[in-house]
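Customer escalation, tier 2.

The customer says the design service returned an amino acid string that "doesn't look like it belongs to this structure." They asked us to rerun it and document both sides in this ticket. The original structure tokens are below, unchanged.
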């Protein structure tokens, strides 16, 4: 995804994402952006709050530092600090939000059809996950979304998991 770094709002949103997650494309885009601004010395000020924020994030990752919530950070390699690679032991995980929504909608719908919670969770796991896996993931999704989906009519739920 290409981020719009032409405005302070777009740059701020990109920095929020950079600080919170792992996106090598964004990391490269931010590094190139700030490198270009530093080359054009009359454009960037050392007092620029967005530049300071970027620099603080990277330096905080490099050093044994704490983040703004005073949570201890572990020392990162330069590649990890700039966001090009994940820290050791971390792996890129697939986004399961849509699957979780479908599973939760299915469980709520199946419970309305008279199935027990365990039956509905098992059936959803069989339907949306690979064999012999997924009961715990479906149960977590159900707990997360059940209050939201309890007010939905059956037709809407059917459309969500269809």
């Amino acid at each position: 995804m290409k981020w719009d770094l032409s405005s302070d709002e777009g740059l701020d949103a990109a920095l929020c994402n950079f600080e919170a997650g792992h996106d090598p494309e964004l990391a490269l885009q931010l590094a190139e952006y700030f490198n270009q601004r530093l080359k054009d010395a009359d454009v960037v000020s050392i007092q620029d709050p967005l530049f300071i924020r970027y620099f603080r994030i990277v330096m905080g990752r490099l050093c044994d530092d704490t983040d703004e919530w005073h949570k201890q950070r572990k020392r990162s390699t330069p590649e990890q600090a700039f966001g090009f690679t994940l820290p050791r032991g971390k792996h890129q995980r697939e986004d399961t939000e849509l699957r979780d929504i479908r599973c939760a909608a299915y469980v709520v719908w199946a419970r309305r059809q008279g199935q027990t919670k365990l039956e509905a969770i098992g059936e959803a796991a069989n339907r949306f996950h690979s064999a012999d896996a997924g009961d715990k993931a479906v149960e977590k999704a159900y707990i997360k979304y059940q209050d939201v989906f309890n007010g939905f009519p059956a037709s809407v739920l059917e459309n969500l998991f269809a």
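Tier 2 assessment: The sequence is consistent with the input. The chain has two domains: 8-81, 97-161. The longest helix spans residues 24-39. Sent an explanation to the customer and offered a walkthrough call.
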